[in-house]
């Protein structure tokens, strides 16, 4: 049986590859549990400094597998399945690892939540991104209602969840849903280059910076300032910060 999600670690990079190309990498029960298990492992491994999420086939992720939903036969089953996938989303979002996403082709429904669990998304020139929940009489899940508005603003989020609109790759960047749009054939290469740059630089500092930005929405200004002060102090004690700050001070004369 083909694994629904592939997982490798190479020179500090954990690669999580959605691997149901025949179903546009839509999530069924097996994919949901593999996602939860793999993300849980990735964020605690000592040999991982950054994460890359990508996908095989013509699409990044079409969200939930509608055929699998019908087979579940109940809203309770769908709620439980969403909860499993949410564990993986939380593992990535709450981690101190920077996460890059290579979202080629179509990203729809819960696939937006998978994209938003990353911190830096690269899309292709012919990519299409949208909600499409209401087309099937469903409502957003997998963090879409929680994270989409933070990424693009409330009014634009409403435009996506209340219409069948699909954004182009360029529009996704303009709206703030993705960081870069590149040629379709270069999406994976570019996203990996971003992740490798984190690893080759000050990986732990990128992770701490990600954590500060992610936490800011839930903390008061006073709490955030205190967290920033503690974080920069802790960062300065790391060997990489001592090396990089000394080099910068020396070059500044």
What would your notes on this structure say?
- The strands form 2 sheets. The chain has a 6-stranded mixed sheet with strand order 1-2-3-4-6-9, sandwiched between helices. It has a 3-stranded mixed sheet with strand order 5-7-8.
- The model has no long low-confidence stretch (mean pLDDT 94).
- A hairpin with a 2-residue loop joins strand 1 and strand 2.
- It is of the alpha/beta class.
- It has 11 helices and 9 strands.
- The chain starts with a strand and ends with a helix.
- It has 2 domains: 196 residues, 2-enoyl-CoA Hydratase, Chain A, domain 1 (Alpha-Beta Complex); 49 residues.
- It is globular and about 60 Å long.
Please summarize what this structure is.
The protein has 253 residues and is α/β, with parallel strands linked by helices.
Sum up the structure in keywords.
253 residues; 2-enoyl-CoA Hydratase, Chain A, domain 1; 2 domains; three-stranded mixed sheet; 11 helices; 9 strands; Enoyl-CoA hydratase; ClpP/crotonase-like_dom_sf
Question: Total domains, how many?
Answer: 2
Number of distinct helices: 11
Strand-and-helix sequence, N→C? Answer: EEHEHHEEHEEHHEHEHHHH
Instruction: Give helix % range.
Output: 40-55%
CATH architecture group name of the largest domain: Alpha-Beta Complex
Kindly report the average pLDDT value: 94
N-to-C span: 61 Å
Query: Biggest sheet, in brief?
Result: 6 strands, mixed
Q: Using only CA atoms, what is the Rg? A: 19 Å
Per CATH, the class of the largest domain reads Alpha Beta
| Class inferred from helices and paired strands | alpha/beta
Strand fraction band? 15-25%
The shape is: globular
Largest sheet strand order: 1-2-3-4-6-9
**Annotated CATH homologous superfamily of the largest domain:** 2-enoyl-CoA Hydratase, Chain A, domain 1
Q: Could you say what the CATH topology of the largest domain is called?
A: 2-enoyl-CoA Hydratase, Chain A, domain 1
Compute the number of strand runs: 9
Low-confidence runs: none
